[in-house]
Design goal:
This protein has helices at 2-21, 27-30, 39-42, 70-81, 96-101, 116-119, 162-171, 182-190, 201-210, 235-250, 253-261; strands at 47-52, 55-56, 60-63, 66-68, 85-90, 107-108, 123-124, 129-138, 155-158, 176-179, 196-200, 214-216, 222-226, 229-230. The protein has 265 residues and is α/β, with parallel strands linked by helices. It folds into 2 domains: 5-128 and 227-261, D-Maltodextrin-Binding Protein, domain 2, CATH 3.40.190; 132-223, 3-Layer(aba) Sandwich (D-Maltodextrin-Binding Protein, domain 2), CATH 3.40.190. The longest helix is centred in the first third of the chain and has 20 residues, at 2-21. It is globular and about 55 Å long. The structure holds arginine.
């Protein structure tokens, strides 16, 4: 399968990037300038370049040499319907919107929440999923509900996410520690460097089930909608993706993909 091979190549390229990035400063990878195949280099108009941040199970993550997840599969369906080849660019979450704005990527799909502020920079498609910001704590911690979080709490978040934005607003910058990935934030929680992690509910569940001694608070922190972002001047692509999404919704394909990754409770 051509698509699979392409994503395999991307993953290998990304792993190589990480190897080299490890030798330099963080700045090397910060702006998403990874030496992955760029839109220009791919030499095909038929490529749909999706920027994501594949550290976000079950929406996008890397397993072995493959990109997997709900977003990856929905994007694959959209690309098929548009008769395009999907190319995945795995970049820092907070560089996705800028890259879409400048046309470096055709679309951003990363469990991305629709917010008014982001809408000023990019257009969002119709929503295809909903999310909840949840709070992960260590079992038996003093934080029993969202009301126990204050400016005194050490809150871990993934940089640039809505968890980061809302928590910075609510508890002040001082309380927030920003990490490159949600997994890094969870690691800090496990080693008692933060008191809680605010992150989307499905990744929260994945991280909690992969690590002993963590639990998710019953009370949720915020509720939101996920959509794909596209450059403001690319209404044509926006409309095409919306048409594809509506067909994928009515055919039951989206539900089918979601239920592969998320079991009904
Ligand atoms: N829903 C949150 C937001 O839009 C977090 C998304 C993080 N996604 C990722 N692939 N790391 O800000």
């Amino acid at each position: 399968m051509k698509k699979r091979i392409l994503s395999l190549m991307m993953a290998v390229a990304f792993a190589t990037t990480l190897l080299f990035a490890g030798c330099g400063s963080n700045e090397d990878t910060k702006d998403g300038e990874t030496p992955l195949e760029s839109k220009e280099e791919s030499g095909s108009d038929e490529t749909l370049v999706m920027a994501t941040n594949a550290t976000f199970p079950p929406y996008e993550y890397v397993e072995g040499n493959d990109y997997l997840g709900i977003d990856v599969e929905i994007a694959g369906e959209i690309a098929d319907m548009l008769d395009m080849e999907l190319e995945i660019q795995d970049v820092e979450f907070d560089s996705i919107i800028a890259g879409v704005q400048t046309g470096k990527y055709d679309m951003g799909m990363a469990g991305m929440t629709v917010t008014d502020e982001r809408k000023q920079s990019v257009n969002f498609t119709d929503t295809y999923a909903s999310g909840i910001q949840s709070v992960i704590v260590a079992e038996g911690s003093g934080i029993a509900s969202v009301d126990d979080i204050s400016s005194e709490t050490r809150v871990g978040v993934q940089q640039g996410t809505t968890g980061d934005i809302y928590a910075s607003d609510d508890y002040g910058d001082e309380a927030i520690t920003r990490f490159k990935t949600g997994a890094d934030a969870v690691q800090a929680l496990l080693t008692n460097k933060v008191d809680c992690v605010i992150i989307d509910n499905e990744p929260a569940k994945a991280f909690v089930s992969a690590n002993e001694g963590l639990t998710i608070l019953d009370t949720s922190y915020a509720e939101e909608d996920y959509a794909i972002c596209v450059a403001k001047d690319n209404e044509e692509l926006l409309n095409k993706i919306n048409d594809a999404l509506s067909e994928l919704k009515s055919s039951g394909k989206i539900d089918e993909i979601v239920s592969k990754y998320i079991s009904a409770e």
